[in-house]
Amino acid sequence: MEASQNTPAQSIDELASILQGVGVSEVPKMPNTYPELNPFDVYRAHITELLASICDVEKSIILAAMQWTTTLEKGDLQLPVPALRKKGVKPDALAKELAEKFPESVLVERPTVVGVSLAFFFKTSPLTKLIVPFVLKNGAKCGFNPNFGLRDPTDPSKGKKKMIVEFSSPNIAKPFHAGHLRSTIIGGFLANLYEGAGWDVTRMNYLGDWGKQYGVLAVGFDKFGSEAELVKNPIGHLYEVYVKISAISREEKEVMDAKEEEIKKLQEAKEPTGEKEAELQALIDKGVDEQARKYFKRMVDGDSEALGVWKRFRDLSIVKYKDTYARLNIRYDEYSGESQVQDASMDEAAKILEEKGISHVDRGAVLVDLSKHQKKLGKCLVKKKDGTSLYLTRDIGAATERFEKYHFDKMIYVVANQQDLHLAQLFKIMELMGRTDISSRCEHINFGMVLGMSTRKGTARFLDDILRDVGDKMHEVMRGNADKYAEVEDPHKTADTLGISAVMVQDMKGKRVNNYEFNMDRMCSFEGDTGPYLQYAHARITSITRKAPLSLEELLSADLSLLTEPKAMDLVRTLACWPDVFVNTVKTQEPTTVLTYLFKMVHTLSSSYEVLKVVGSEEELKKARAALLVAAKQVLGNGMRLLGLSPVERM
Ligand SMILES: NC(=[NH2+])NCCC[C@H](N)C(=O)O
């Protein structure tokens, strides 16, 4: 591997010496800037100092006023002059004045005036000398900033802030639907994001693994289950069993409803019904529903045999889930679940709700009327007539338990926007209970629907099916190019990775709240902004840098002043944005922020190959170009890994 993993990060002294080399005597520094982790901060602080010397505006105001540009043609940074909040002067006049008075700088050109804004272009030669070594030395850490997650940015010894990201959270014996898929992808990304920002992240999977349906499942397993199948394919097999037993339960219900109808008629006709009623009772007792109810009751009461069966289903499912998640580069620190919520914490919550007069009893059930506080929150049930808990009740208990256990500073629930109401109710109830210490730290990260997620073999039920299907599709696409295909070492594995990238990129391309259409052909195409295209870009740059195998030392010794082509400069300027893109992503919490950048970057990259030939160039030039391309590969790889993708080296 070239410049990556364990290479030491660039130190502030190294930065200082590079800056001295280009004629800047001191590292420009301002509060909340991290020049050693983000070269843009060097420029922001530098420009701020220069502007402060020619106008009477607070440095902090100048710094905050500086903005990113949308395209390179608009400069590297811009400053809308009205944001300087200077009273009594016309912004366009002030812009002109500042541009004229702007002192000579070795780092930036004199700003150009565009309307009421100043556009700053960084001088490219010093920028290149700053950026290329910065990326090469920081390697896999490049772009990330572990300071954001510090409890106290001025005192790292106080440790990191604690975050729980709860995501994926499928239901055992039920299909893994699109909502779970998106939660898995987006949640995995968010966990990486916050880790990159220096938070101490706990990845949590909150399984749907409790409720009467697990009684149904146990009854079903008795009838239709197979030990061998269970071990081989627990998730699929349990689902099969569940489907079969649910069908029986539905049929039975029809029969019972008919019987009940009959009895009612007899009662109306004042005929004796004793015998019929006994018959119905016998039917009910024998029925799946009643047996399941009894079975679940045993689970609730802690019957070890009943719990043992259920625990096996759960454990085997988790083993299988782990494999699948690993394909997506996801691992969990905790598999919690609805079943793990303690009665004690739910009882405690119920007590508080009652004492504070938040809940009331209605026909034996316990309700909370949230509509008084916010109309759309409505009324919600927190305890059923028979005393059993609900989804919402378990979430209340779970939140308090997690807070006890982790003392988190922030907890993110990555759940589809179909559950907006549920989570809003949860947070509101916590608040009314007086637990603002918890509710204020919770955030629901939601997302829209996936439309038409079916595969060619029918409707996809499980994550594995989806991944297998896109993998097959990718394999087919790869076979389309026979020459290339022959060169790929392990086509199955590559197709699998590409397929996963296809699904993930399609999912993360738009804003989270948008719905999107699951379109297998489009996502698997090498054309357009797709996962395979991104992978192709990574494989291509790898293949080019492979042809100039240079050590990190050699790359760092390159004479970067040889990089003068406009294409090289565009690439350097684009790479320089990466740490800022990361900062912005922490703000937006949108994977599309990263993807949009990466696509822009690979477009710049691919249009530069023609000009920046490595092979065949004279030795020194080759070294300089290789240094730039290795840096580009590093940034591309870092961005892809942040999203949860596995960059491929060949394809
Ligand atoms: N804490 C939560 N409620 N998380 C979301 C759980 C999602 C739930 N298992 C479902 O499939 O709908």
From TrEMBL:
One GO molecular-function entry: ATP binding
DNA-binding as UniProt keyword: no
Location of the Arginyl tRNA synthetase N-terminal domain: 41-122
KW Aminoacyl-tRNA synthetase (keyword) present: yes
Top-rank EC class of the record's enzyme: ligase
This protein's GO CC annotations: mitochondrion
Domain DALR anticodon binding: 534-651
Keyword list, A-Z: Aminoacyl-tRNA synthetase, ATP-binding, Ligase, Nucleotide-binding, Protein biosynthesis
EC id: 6.1.1.19
SUPFAM superfamilies found in the cross-reference section: Anticodon-binding domain of a subclass of class I aminoacyl-tRNA synthetases (SSF47323), Arginyl-tRNA synthetase (ArgRS), N-terminal 'additional' domain (SSF55190), Nucleotidylyl transferase (SSF52374)
Catalytic activity: tRNA(Arg) + L-arginine + ATP = L-arginyl-tRNA(Arg) + AMP + diphosphate
Pfam family, one: tRNA-synt_1d
Entries under SMART domains matching the protein: Arg_tRNA_synt_N (SM01016), DALR_1 (SM00836)
GO biological process, one term: mitochondrial translation
Membership in a protein family: Belongs to the class-I aminoacyl-tRNA synthetase family.
NCBIfam families cross-referenced by the UniProt entry: argS
Protein name: arginine--tRNA ligase
Native source species: Pseudovirgaria hyperparasitica
